[in-house]
Design a protein that fits this description.
heterodimer, A: about 230 residues, alpha/beta, 8 helices, 10 strands, about 30% strand, B: alpha+beta, six-stranded mixed barrel, four-stranded antiparallel β-sheet, binds adenosine-5'-triphosphate, binds magnesium ion
């Protein structure tokens, strides 16, 4: 039993997220129950507006649920303050957002270094890790390009490098291949597979079944309701 | 312990990067940053220019008053009913006091001077022979007032260059006669202007005529002298002489209060410095309004900047920046803006003050206190007015920010 709990990465119980829209209350997430084991590779599949990004924000400790319990590494996230939440984000979680998201005044390398800056990593180590990560996503020759000198796909790869550079235990990716062509998309999927094989926990959000299939476990979300899909890729 | 140092150095590296990011953010919007900085720049420039110029002025005042050793004091007597002023005997006693070189009564009149039907009003000052001993340069030409003149109330006078030009144009006035309130006086000398540096002349200017004090007393009908200049060997001894005077005068005036007052150069210098101090306080008040306006400018720019950079803030938070780290970033930015304006203001203020001192003919001295003041002021303005925008930035919700992407 104890063994069991320590292997649970996080568990969500009856998570509800509502927004007050004037008089009306709109329920974006409705009683979501989800448990993830360490090292799991999960994809969340659902149509646009179904609540995928909202769920990701809650998992990533960027947002708090209206009600329900979210326990990450045995800690109730609901009770944590801003500072502790940012510590978790810094240490545990790597985000890849849906939209392009580089800081315009920093070059690719500095953008990738950013999470390490806030984590207080030494400059030399920071540079080396950022460069290694950029090479990993195929941007060895674009280290010192600024966002306006990079294509959308390249920017997305910078974002992936930035999410991975802290060696997060949980990688949260919102449509990571949305802006990429098939070949690049495949490369990213291979990268994710490799990370998963190395024990990273990955949650990938997508509306594309073909992408979702790369994960070992798929859950469906429709109108804020989560349901377990059939296992693929056993 | 190791953990502590890691945290410390990590914080330092983060700080360095925050400074770099702040600099590129400031440079990103050069025109806006410049205009914002202008307010602080003008405020600090004003403060520095005022403080250094005023300290220059007050140094030059105290130099001219206090550093020249010998000096003078004035004794003003209102007197009592029994004794309305100082007699020749009293003055003699005062002249004998320690540290006192000599005394000279000051009797000021406004009289009509008539020379061959041309009449005009002029200022007349009754002096004794010692005055001319003390200030030999007071006579440009001719002779001074002598002991004989004062003893026998001679009707002789020394006249100013102005009077020579207006009443004796083209004639040598020496030995000529002029009428002072219808009494005939013989001109025996011409006054050299700007040579007599005593309190009396500093405060009232050089008079147009000098006549023997005894003659002046007779003209006014007064029996005794009410104002006396006391020449002392060293300005440092002002207080000692004051004490001696009190011991001498109190019994003469029956120990009554407020019957005489003593002004030394020292006390006048003090008063002037006090006045300058008050003036600089007032001007500093005005300058600090400029600084306040500058601070509001910075606050305004920082608030705009926070709104514009919501996405950046959200993203940084999402990748692990703590609220404190975001706040620090914005504080550094407003601090840098303000301190840049402050430093430029210090340089310009020093130049302005050097120019002003040059124009006024006083020596300019660089005041490190003023520089520290400028740095301190601008740093404080940056932090105080940057605080609330920075706090606002640190409290932005990351999701709201990210939804805007
Ligand atoms: N702050 C908010 N206030 C009100 N409604 C909101 C707010 N944020 C999100 N929503 C609503 O929640 C729903 C889910 O949004 P979410 O961004 O999670 O969708 P999604 O599944 O990620 O869609 P997509 O695939 O298009 O990115 C949407 O209908 C949206 O309108
Ligand atoms: Mg979404």
């Amino acid at each position: 039993m104890n063994q069991d709990i320590s292997n649970v990465f996080f568990s969500m119980k009856d998570i509800v997220k509502q927004y007050q829209m004037g008089e009306e209350v709109s329920t974006v997430l409705n009683n979501v129950n989800l448990s993830i084991q360490e090292g799991e590779y999960l994809s969340v599949l659902g149509p646009s507006g179904s609540g995928k990004s909202t769920l990701m924000n809650i998992i990533g400790c960027l947002d708090l649920p209206t009600s329900g319990e979210y326990i990450l590494h045995g800690q109730r996230v609901n009770d944590l303050g801003e500072k502790e939440l940012s510590r978790i984000r810094s240490r545990e979680i790597g985000f890849i957002f849906q939209n392009s998201q580089m800081l315009p005044l920093l070059d690719a390398q500095k953008n990738v270094e950013l999470p390490l800056i806030y984590a207080g990593v030494r400059p030399k180590e920071r540079r080396e890790r950022a460069q290694e990560m950029l090479r990993h996503v195929g941007l060895a020759d674009r280290m010192h390009h600024y966002p306006n000198q990079l294509s959308g796909g390249q920017q997305q790869r910078v974002a992936i490098a930035r999410a991975l550079v802290t060696r997060p235990t949980l990688l949260l990716a919102d449509e990571p291949t949305g802006a990429l062509d098939q070949k690049m998309g495949r490369q990213i999927m291979e990268l994710f597979q490799e990370l998963s094989d190395n024990g990273h926990t990955i949650i990938m959000i997508t509306h594309d079944l073909n992408i979702a299939k790369h994960a070992r476990r798929v859950v469906h979300i429709i109108d804020g309701e989560l349901s377990e899909g059939e296992a693929v890729n056993p | 312990m190791k953990h502590f140092f890691q945290k410390l150095s990590g914080g330092f590296y983060m700080f360095v990067e925050s400074v770099k990011m702040s600099v590129s953010n400031i440079l990103q919007n050069k025109m806006r940053s410049f205009l914002t900085v202008l307010g602080i720049l003008i405020g600090v420039m004003a403060v520095i220019a005022l403080v250094t110029t005023i300290s220059g002025v007050s140094t030059s005042i105290s130099d001219s008053f206090l550093s020249m050793g010998a000096g003078s004091m004035t004794l003003t007597v209102t007197g009592t009913e029994l004794k309305t002023g100082l007699t020749d005997e009293d003055m003699e006693k005062i002249a004998q006091l320690e540290h006192v070189n000599g005394v000279c009564p000051s009797i000021s009149l406004n009289s009509t001077v008539t020379v061959e039907d041309v009449s005009d009003s002029f200022t007349v000052s009754g002096k004794n022979d010692y005055f001319f001993v003390h200030t030999p340069n007071a006579v440009a030409r001719g002779r001074a007032i002598s002991r004989l003149d004062t003893d026998s109330q001679n009707r002789v006078c020394l006249i100013s260059q102005d009077l020579v030009e207006s009443h004796f144009y083209g004639v040598d006035p020496l030995g000529k006669t002029l009428y002072l309130d219808n009494r005939d006086f013989t001109v025996v000398g011409i006054i050299q202007e700007d040579e007599d540096v005593s309190i009396a002349t500093i405060l009232t200017g050089t008079p147009d005529l000098y006549i023997p004090h005894s003659t002046a007393l007779k003209m006014t009908g007064a029996a005794s002298v009410n104002s006396l200049t006391i020449y002392i060997d060293d300005i440092e001894n002002s207080e000692a002489v004051e004490g001696e005077l009190e011991t001498l005068l109190d019994p003469l005036f029956n120990y009554e209060d407020d019957v005489y007052s003593i002004n030394s150069m020292e006390s006048i210098g003090d008063t002037m410095e006090e006045m300058l101090g008050m003036m600089s306080m007032l001007l500093a008040g005005i300058a600090s309004i400029a600084l306040l306006v500058g601070g509001i400018g910075i606050m305004n720019m920082m608030l705009t900047s926070v709104t514009e950079r919501t996405v950046e803030i959200g993203l940084k938070k999402a990748i692990g920046a703590e609220p404190g780290q975001i706040q620090l970033q914005f504080l550094i930015e407003s601090f840098l803006l303000s301190i840049a304006g402050g430093l430029a203001g210090i340089v310009l203020g020093i130049l302005l003050s050097a120019a002003l001192c040059n124009v006024m003919g006083i020596t300019f001295t660089l005041s490190y206190g003023a520089i520290a003041l400028g740095v301190g002021f601008s740093a404080a303005v940056g932090i105080i007015f940057g605080w609330s925008p920075a706090r606002k930035a640190s409290r932005l919700s990351p999701i709201d920010a990210l939804r805007r992407m």
